[in-house]
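Researcher: Structure for this, please.
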Amino acid sequence: MPSKNDSPAPGKAEQTRALILETAMRLFQERGYDRTTMRAIAQEAGVSVGNAYYYFEGKEHLIQGFYDRIAAEHQVAVRAVLARETDLEARLAGVLKAWLDIATPYHEFAVQFFKNAADPDSPLSPFSPESEHARVEAVSVHRAVLTGATGTKVPEELRDVLPELLWLSQMGLCLYWIFDRTEGRARSYRLAERGARLTARGVALARFRVLRPLVREVHELFTDFLPGMTKAMPGPGRKP
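Model: Predicted structure, token format:
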């Protein structure tokens, strides 16, 4: 197995890593996640098994690479939306639809590995410690959605809470998208638009102090009972 001290030049290393990841995604789609081995991925990519393990410790880490890629592509894709739109509903709808656009080529693959990601003990779970980097990146997008919105003032005490809740709503959209069989996943896009509208109205209502405790209670419900939320995503003043 190659030594980390013998790692190739950064340019070539990134190319090799990308090749292994692309090959894995293709084989996962063609053969299924469970029936694809690291040996098969290495063989198809034209690298040694040891080299494949140098870049990815196992199949689970390949999926984490996929998560990170989607998160990075989403960060880039939403820049135009966030620069153009100032209305909260339009910003949120644009961000959600941008995610659907990016995820479109991977729909069948997502359907196949969902059963593994749905396992709360699996490192493929979006709430697992292994998924933390992609999760933090996704939450940061929603924080930017709220920060740049004009006309809808987010109460200061809710600014740390709402980005996580928006990310959770994106996870709900993702689940719906996985099971969506309409042409072009049209219903998922409509859900993104209507969900953004409802969310924007809810945030606008949150300016009323009488409703703020309700928002916090919803957030506490998720952090207390959703696997990994409290431990993986500590917030200001929250106990680990």
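Researcher: Any notable elements?
Model: Residues 76 and 153 are 25 Å apart (CA to CA). DSSP finds eleven helices and no strands in the chain.
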